[in-house]
Design brief:
With about 280 residues, the protein is of the alpha/beta class. It has one domain. It has eleven helices and eight strands. A six-stranded mixed β-sheet has the order 6-4-7-2-1-8, covered by helices on one side.
Length: about 280
């Protein structure tokens, strides 16, 4: 059975878990992909776990999305076929909400007309954060990569192209739902992200996951973007436990709390997960 230990009073900061046997320790750390540059969080148990690990595992290889080939793939996968426009996929109410969101950002109504809904949704979610001091270059993964031992093996659970496909292959209805979750709450994006950041820094994993996944109301998107991946990652962890060593896994914090989390799928495999911070 899974065991989640409450952190000791002196332990503060983002949540950290571990899975271990006689010769293998695997740490599970939930990241936030975009953070303000001045946020200080890397210390204590997290720093020690990373610095003593011989393997660092992330969702995708560090910097993979910045490769020219991947930037081209984003354009190719995220562009609608000729003759179609994003606003043409929306009903009148959706179109009104979407255009209002663009106006709020100071962008023309046709700014993302060539985008598929999933790409427009990601863009709408990120733009207000960047405009308010959040920086993808300051995300937790960047800090972890820089602090990891230089000789540590780097592995990834997925490829960058796989992650693009998760979004690109969503049914049109699910893509539009994903877009509208960003558009209709645009004026709350920064406030919600500030709240998520506070929950993350306090180590309140359950509240953080609830906030992160609250807009994931479409069951198809939730299955594709969260649950199926969590189950596959738990399978990877199970197999990796057969090899000795110390592994630090850093994945989005929304994957490590709530129903059908990585820990839930590990529990189904009778693997004990212990919270250490």
């Amino acid at each position: 059975m899974r065991t989640i230990n409450a952190p000791a009073p002196q332990q503060t900061g983002p949540a950290l878990w571990k899975v271990e046997d006689e010769d293998t320790t695997i740490y599970l750390f939930g990241t936030v992909h975009i953070l303000p540059a001045n946020v200080q969080w890397f210390s204590g148990n997290i720093a020690r776990a990373l610095e003593t690990s011989d393997t660092l595992v992330t969702e995708i290889p560090e910097g993979a999305m910045d490769e020219p080939a991947m930037k081209a793939a984003v354009v190719a996968k995220g562009t609608l076929p000729e003759g179609k426009t994003l606003r043409g996929l929306l009903n009148p109410e959706q179109r009104q909400q979407y255009e209002a969101a663009l106006t709020q950002l100071g962008a023309p109504a046709d700014a993302f007309d060539r985008y598929e809904p999933w790409l427009a949704g990601i863009t709408l979610a990120v733009m207000p954060l960047i405009m308010n001091g959040y920086d993808p270059e300051s995300g937790a993964e960047s800090v972890i990569e820089a602090a990891a031992p230089a000789d540590a093996t780097r592995l990834a659970l997925e490829t960058a192209e796989q992650q693009l496909d998760f979004f690109d292959k969503l049914p049109p209805k699910s893509q539009v739902a994903f877009l509208m979750s960003s558009a209709k709450d645009l004026d709350r994006v920064v406030a919600m992200m500030d709240e998520m950041l506070n929950e993350w820094l306090e180590g309140d994993a359950d509240s953080l996951a609830a906030l992160m996944n609250s807009e994931m109301t479409d069951p198809v998107a939730a299955t594709v973007l969260l649950h199926t991946r969590n189950e596959r990652w738990a399978e990877w962890i199970d197999a990796r436990m057969d090899e000795p060593g110390q592994v630090f896994i850093a994945v989005g914090a929304g994957h490590l709390a709530g129903e059908k989390s990585v820990q839930d799928y590990l529990a189904q495999r009778d693997i004990t997960v212990t919270r250490i911070q």
